[in-house]
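Blackboard transcription, Thursday session:
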Amino acid sequence: MNILIIMIPIAFILGGSFLIAFIWATQNGQFDDTGTPAHRILIEEEHRKDQA
Amino acid sequence: MHTDKTMQSTYDYLDLGQFRVLYNYVHDPRKMKFYIEGIKCSKCIAKIENLKALNEQVQTLEVDLANQTAVVELKSSESSFARVADEIAHLGFRPIPIQASDDTSEKWRQESRRDLIRLAVAGFCAGNIMFLAFSIYFGLDGSMKRSFEWLQFALYLPVVSFVAWPFYTGFLNGLKQRSISIDGPMAIASFIGFSFSTWNLFRGNGSIYFDSTSGFLFLILATRFFQKKMRFEYLKFLRPTALAETMKARLLKDGSWTWIRSDRLKAGDNIVVHQGEWIPADGKLLSPNAILDLSVLDGESLPRRLQNGSPVKAGSRLLSDAIEVNVIKSGADSLLGRLLSSVNSQSIADTEASKLSNKASQILLVTVLLIAAITLFLGFFGDFESYFEKSFALIVLACPCAMAFGTPLALSFSMKRAQENGIILKSAKTFEALSEIDTIFLDKTGTLTEKFWNLTNSSLSPIPSNYMQLILVMESKSQHPIAYALREIWTDIQISSDFKFDSITEIPSLGVQGNMQGKIFKFHHFMENSEKWFGLFEDDHLLWKFQLKSILQQDSLESIKKISQMGYKTFLLSGDKRSETYNIANELGICPASTYSELTPQMKELLVQGKPNSIMIGDGVNDALALKAAKVGIAVKGSIDVALKSADVLFLNSGINSLIELFRIADQARNQIRKNLKTALIYNTVGGIAALLGLINPFIAALLMPMSSIYILASTWWGTRK
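(Written on the board underneath:)
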């Protein structure tokens, strides 16, 4: 059972970092438009300028 | 500032300071948001977004397909928005700048981000608390149990503070208005659950309820989130079109014009309006004549021809060549402005779910809280903890599930069902209101009939092609409304080169006349049996005559029959001419006594106000007042943003067949809500008594609560699935 002392903090750190990542993504507008990006992947790359 | 006068585009006003301020997006001078008419598929996204590769001034350009908008960000505020708009227009779309104050989706976006974060935190905390709690339920003991309980406490801290925050504010706001809001039990359960559990945790004795309360709050938040999402959906149909177009005006000064915001026009200013543009202010026509499309304002289907000196109204569209107008009233003082402000001041969007449920939940909440308080009070004279447990079990158990989310769920599901059938509801309140309807008012133009016209009553049939060609050639130069209508109807007629007139002249306010090889052809209207006919004459001998008539929409007849079978009184309202309106009424089987023609918007409003339990179906600004006056205002397809601001429902499919569907869905929603309330009544009475007798402890209550919720959810989904 002692393994739990390591496992549980790791689980919380993992879960917590995903939660923080999710909050960060939401605040940056990741979920504002959930429809258009699905279409955007269909767009031919060759006509587009380098996005970087 | 971009002041390059050589580039005269339709959009160059966008680069003027006053318009930049107006259309500023998120207070960033480099950003502007456009509604883009014509975006339909991923190809359109590619086309538009590709502009950022072609125009080096553009920093980013992002299209939102669902909302049909694009946000343009320039590299510097000196760059030109007009150029980008021009380029978009060049691709075959129509960009319309959106004012920040009109941009409802922006406000909702912020709110939905906040809600999503709250939901994520609730889910994370509740989920982890459950895991920890389950190991205790399955027999974990000793020091491990203690540390698991403290972990639960730590995870519950964000729940009791951040997650439950809207419940506290909702509860307090309700108290300020002297009512117990639906947030009440959530606020109380969250807070009392926390206090009692923490107390037990500290003394190391008694149960803790972090798992049940956090799970309960997560479920409620999740349902609320989806319910809100459904409401956002309708917002994207609020499109700026005519309104945005009337925001700009060409001000005449010393023989040349400059762009100006129409709300800054003053009485006495002279403006120029070009062909195809919307008149930005009320005024007097200075040019010899003009042809205006007033369909947005009064629903008249034929364009109107105006002479020098006659009044022109903001919101009408110029079909003929450029005109000059002397401004009399602008902005909020114009007819359009007045119509709009009267609509806005009346539209207090009420988002509360349902009267019936609110009332029932009020009674339930007050009863439960009162009993809980009495139980707790009795505890002071006896075994406090056991009384506390009973009282807490009662609060957790007697959650107004049926009201807190049974009703919103039933309404959301039904709204979604309606949406799948092309019916967009602004608020679920409409379902309730529909049960009290006894009268239906129908607008003629656009609702029952198509917007365009058709030839009828031809004296012979079919009309010979050479006659059509004769008429079209004679009318080809004409700016008369009828010429526009005919060109629309006979688009596919090929005109042979044989028809060459020596001269074509207009017969003022009657028609046209042409001379060909010594023959005089005339095309003009005339009255016969007090009906308006159009005739083609050769040397004053009638060759051909016909009438123009609006076409009934395909399903109108059948739908009207069904609606009258359902026992509703049906009235036909129209701004159109008397004979036209009565013909349509006759065709539909609506009796003449229920038919009103040549109505102004105010008269329509008065008629609708006379029947408190009525539906008004119509479109355009001219119906805005009537739509607002009706208990349920329904805008039909093709309506502009204005009508939608005043209407409760929007039909995306043309015709009124959707009305029957709407009635059915509303019935279904109401039945389901009633069923949910009955279930809740039985559950709460039985469960409440059991809790008070001590048969149910808070843990069992916390288990029963989600189970009852899941039952309500499943039953609601099942009951509204069709």
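Lecturer's comment: The longest strand of chain B covers residues 541-552.
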